[in-house]
Amino acid sequence: MFVTATAPNPLTVKLIAEATGAAITLSWTTWALAMLLPGLAAIALMPLVLYLLYPPEIKKTEDAASFARQQLSDLGRMQRDEKITLGVFVMLLLLWAGVPAWLLGDAFALHSATAALIGLAVLLLTGVLTWKDVLSEKSAWDTLVWFGALVMMASQLNQLGVVAWFSSTIEGLITQTGVGWLGASSLLILVFLYSHYFFASTTAHITAMMGAFLAVGLAMGAPAMPFVLSMAAASSIMMTLTHYATGTSPVIFGSGYVPLGEWWRAGFIMSVVNLLVWVVVGGLWWKLLGYW
């Protein structure tokens, strides 16, 4: 639902801007607004669908509310560091949403990365975090280094004409089928999403395929905004497919609560449900917003 929700989303924004010649640049606010209603619908449907697929052994927990209240009471009142962290969280949401630019003009517009660094600086200056805490976040440093390298690779592939060559090849193949822009865009989204079975990294997958697929869909005449938003949604939907689909999947799978076969089955079913949500609810919502 948010461009800051997962590491590959900013890469998706960059590739969309490149594919459309900067005609479509998805800000944090634009992304959040476009994904709001289909995202909420997906959140509401997911537990219901999984409840029907895998009915829980325990369906009533009368003591859950009292247990939660007791645990909250044991935590006590919010401490200084917790209050500062909450304040920084709210501040970052406002910065990512572009509130300073709305109130004070475009001169105060901040890049999402700049806003994140401001938040980190506040946490460091107030002592909520130490530099040792920052250095210990190995996964964050991995993401930063690999993300930077992959972004440059995507840019170079585009500049060297590899994306254009691949796009024209795919466009020629799809044109021969005579399916038109609707069939072409649907085929591109499905192939893009389900080819993630062959990837263990969403960032690598997006780097390898999204730029070319965006170029083909737009060249075939697909309405720009709905198509790029659908591709952006697919880049997140595919994270449900397998136990290696994204960085957090192996950690969750490693807990041992979900067998491999059930994970793949549930992941595929939820991908279909989410696709339908984004096509139906998303399509109507984007029509209401005037995107097509």
Short recap of the structure:
Helix content is 73%, strand content 0%. It has 292 residues and is mainly alpha-helical.
Observed structural traits:
292 residues, mainly alpha, 14 helices, 0% strand, globular
Tell me what the structure shows.
This protein is an all-alpha fold. Helices cover 73% and strands 0% of the residues. Helix 1 runs parallel beside helix 11 (202-219), helix 9 packs across helix 11 and helix 10 (180-194) packs parallel to helix 12 (224-237). The longest helix is centred in the C-terminal third of the chain and has 29 residues, at 260-288. The radius of gyration is 21 Å and the shape is globular. The two termini are 20 Å apart.
Secondary-structure element order, as H and E? HHHHHHHHHHHHHH
- Which oligomeric state applies? single chain
Strand content: under 5%
C-alpha geometry:
globular
- Relative helix content: over 70%
CA radius of gyration: 21 Å
Number-wise, the strands total 0
Q: Helical segment tally?
A: 14
Compute the separation of the termini in Å: 20 Å
> How does the major sheet shape up?
none
> Low-confidence parts, pLDDT < 50 over ≥5 residues?
none
The class by helix and strand makeup works out as mainly alpha
Mean pLDDT: 84
